[in-house]
Structure formats: C-alpha cells, structure tokens
Amino acid sequence: MSNPKPPSRTQARAPKASGLSKKDLARQAALGTSTRAARPGSATERLMKAEPHGTRRPGAGGFVSHAGDTGPAPEKPVSTYVPKPRAPVMTTRLDQIRQVLDEVLTWRFAADSVVSHWFRAHPKLGIRDRAEVAEVVYAVLRHLRRYRQLAESGVGNAVRRLAIQGAMVTMDPEKVRAVLDPGELAWLDRIAQIEELSMPLEVRGSLPDWLYERLKDLPDLENLVAALNQSAPLDIRVNPLKAERDEMLADLTKGNAVRHSPVATPYSPWGIRLTGRPAMNKWHQFEHGLIEVQDEGSQLLALLVGPKRGEMVIDFCAGAGGKTLLLGALMRSTGRLYAFDVSATRLAKAKPRFARSGLSNVVPVAIDHENDQRVRRLAGKGQRVLVDAPCSGVGTLRRNPDLKWRQSTQSLAELTDLQARILKSAARCVAPGGRLVYATCSLLAEENQDQVVRFLADHPDFELIDAAPLLAARTPLQIEGPYLSLRPDVHQTDGFFAAVMERKKGLADAEPVKKKTEVEKPIDC
What we know:
Layout: H1 9-13, H2 22-31, H3 43-49, E1 63-64, E2 70-71, H4 89-104, H5 111-121, H6 127-142, H7 144-151, H8 158-170, H9 173-177, H10 182-191, H11 201-204, H12 209-215, H13 221-228, E3 234-238, H14 245-252, E4 263-264, E5 271-274, H15 284-287, E6 291-293, H16 296-305, E7 312-315, H17 322-330, E8 336-341, H18 344-357, E9 362-366, H19 373-376, E10 382-388, H20 403-406, H21 409-427, E11 430-440, H22 449-458, E12 462-465, H23 467-472, E13 484-486, H24 488-491, E14 496-503
Parallel strand pairs: 7-8, 7-10, 8-9, 10-11
Antiparallel strand pairs: 1-2, 3-5, 3-6, 4-5, 11-14, 12-14, 13-14
Helix pairs in contact: 4-6, 4-8, 6-8, 7-8, 16-17
C-alpha cells in the first residue's frame, strides 16, 4: 500500500474554513484583520458592519453619520458672489474710439498704421467691431476742424467729444445718446442748433489753413471739398496678361463679391469698382494674380506711358509695384521693366505681387540716391520712363484724411524740392525720342503744372505732349489737355495729375556743371 501524497505548500498555507464568503474575506484582508470570525458585539464586528460616512440608506431619505445616526443632508453653501454688471456696448465702443483717437491725433504715424497696430493689440475684437471703430475714427479725421470747434462748448474729455460727434454720424444716434450723461446730452442739443452754412468753408469743410489757401481759387470748390470728405469706393483691375474684364465681372457676380456690387469703371478699360471693404486677399482671383487693387486714376497712367513689347521701361518710383504690374502686363512680359525705389523693404513686399502676376520681365532695383551708379548705367536707354513722384497726397484724402493734418507749408516745400530732383534724375534715363511721364496724386499747382513748367524751362531737349489724344484712343474720358487732371467730384476717382513729355531726337541734355562742393541729396520715392 503506497504512502499518501504530502500536501503542497499552497495547501499547507490555506486558512481554515471560517464560514465567511470570499467578499468578507477580501474585506477583512483590506482592513488588516484576521480571517477568523469576529466575536459577536466586538469592535471588529462593528467596524466590519460600519457604513461609509455620508452614505444614504435606501428608503430612509436621510444621512448616515459616523455614529450611525441619520439626519437631513447638509445644504450646499449659498454663494454671495454678485456678477459685475456689464457696461452697455455703446459705452465700450465710445471708449475704444477715444483710445484710438488719442494715438492717431499725435500725428506721429499714419492713421492706417495706428489703427492696424491698435487692432493687433486687441485681438478679441470681431470684424464688425473693428469696422465700427475704424469708420468713426476716419469720420473724425475728415471733419476734425469742424468737430473741434463744436467741441469747445462742451465739458469733459475733449477727445471723447470728438468720438461722440463721429459716432452720431456713422452709428445709430439714439443708441449713442442712450449712454451719454446729462451734460453731454445738453451739449449735443446746443450744437445741433448751429447752422453749418454760418461757418467759413475752411471750417465746415475741415481744411487746414495751408491747404485752403492753395485750393480756394479752384472752380467748384464747395463740391470738391465735399467729395474729399466722403469715403471712396474700392477700385480694382484685371491683370491683362491673365484675364478679361467682362469675364471677370461675370465671375465676381457669381461668388461672394456679388454683395459688393461690382461694376465696370467708366474710364479705365481694366477697372472694376466695388462697394464696401471686401477681404480681397482671400479671393481665389486675387491669389492667382487675376486682379489687383488700383484706383482708376492710377490705371489711366499706363495709357499715357503706352509701353510696347520689347521696350526698356523704367518705373522710377515703383513703391509697392501697383503701376509696375500693369505696365509689365501691357508689355506682355517682354522687354525689360526696371522698378526703381530707394526702399528695399517696399520692393521686397512687391516681389510676391510680381510672382503672382506671372510677369518675368520685372527687374526690381533698390537705389541710394538720384546719382546712383545703377541709374547712370541706364542713361539715355529708356524708351518709357514713369515718375509717380512722392507728393502731399491731397488727391487721396478720401482714403487718407489724416494727410491734410500731417502736412504743412514746410513739408510741402520739401516735397516740391524732392520732386524736382527726382524728375531731373529720371530725365537722364530717357532715350532720344523716348517718353517721360510725370504724375502725382495731388491737386496742388506747385506740385503739378508749376513743376512741369520749371522742368521744361531747364531742359530744352524735352517738349510737352498733349495727353488728350493719347487717352482718346483707349478711353471715353474727355479732357481739355495738355495735362491729365482728375478730381473726385467730377470723375469719381482720386485726384490725379499727369504730364507727358518727349525727348527730342538729336539734342543733348544741357545740364549745368555742378561745383565740387555741391553735395548730392538722397531721394525718397
């Protein structure tokens, strides 16, 4: 008979049966107690049968405490926080407008730069909020002289009174009045009784004295001033190298642009006019170089330059490249088109536009001054030279109303001197029989006609060409000539001036010999 098998270690270590279930055994193990049955009434038994603190007993509707007593559930503490009432939207809006005006009215930087910088510092503002702030700010800049005179009779912050006047014109006046204090309401009621026609034209039209003295002899001055104080529509043009205007109009009326009422411009064969402020940089037509932003008056300059295929053309003050793009497209991307500017930064920003347009004949050149070696190398070689000279910008006040406040008699004198030097330098590049076009976005004679007369007197090898027949071949625009002069109240464009001159064949440009002590002055296109 064989011996019985000895028990395994596991079996040897197994606890004796205690009559407890596996769940009770696990609970005892967790509590660190023995697997033996607890003595009835002992502390171990009471601990094993205890319920966790805060356990609700089914059906009792009460609360079990550590002692096992039941009672009502503790109530949650009542918050004493009282939310701060939000200020009315119009109150916030007026404060935002005042903040922007505080920065703009220092005149340290252009208004559009200040507004853009302020928006970047306040990224939570929505598109509609930004539009309201910008619209009121620009309204104040357009009517600043009149608003300041009317604000003198009020009390409180002077810039806030400017913001209130702008908001009353561009926003819901009842909502504006609803957030004003009694003193501000009384002031508004007082100035509402003032008849605008009782003010001098320079005050009600908000013209600084230096500008009024130079415009007062122009015909229909009332209409001109009224037009300059209106906001301008947005003019764009098609890229003649890639698109036709009729096809583009049909395309725009089918997409998101339909709400901006696109129509053909009356004079430019490439122009399209839009209402509002569309986000054009997101349109696929813009991304593919089919359209560009350019005022209709600026587009007409290309007709006066009249570039041809294979020619050498120079845009002497190219800037961001708007006119360069149109000239290159009319050349069908042949020949060579030099884009000169003293700002390498501006030219760098223009390069993506050149690439998007599909042009391959543009040569951007950053120059240091009018006698730059890169300019001298092109002496007498350009068939067409365009000088869109830096100017006071009076013709663009619809878009840049702050310019009239940031300019002065002194700055105007500096500009006219700069224009004369740029024109003289650009003239060196014109080949015999070549064309020189001088243009500004100004309405002032001393920047326009007077500048041309002075140049022709100093350069007898150039002669003035009538601009009227040059435009008549491509546009229904009728002008008296010999200059192109556009006004916002007559032509619904920015104010523009252009003169066309031609270098006579067989004559050398007789220039006075400079003294050795004469210092070259840098130019700034």
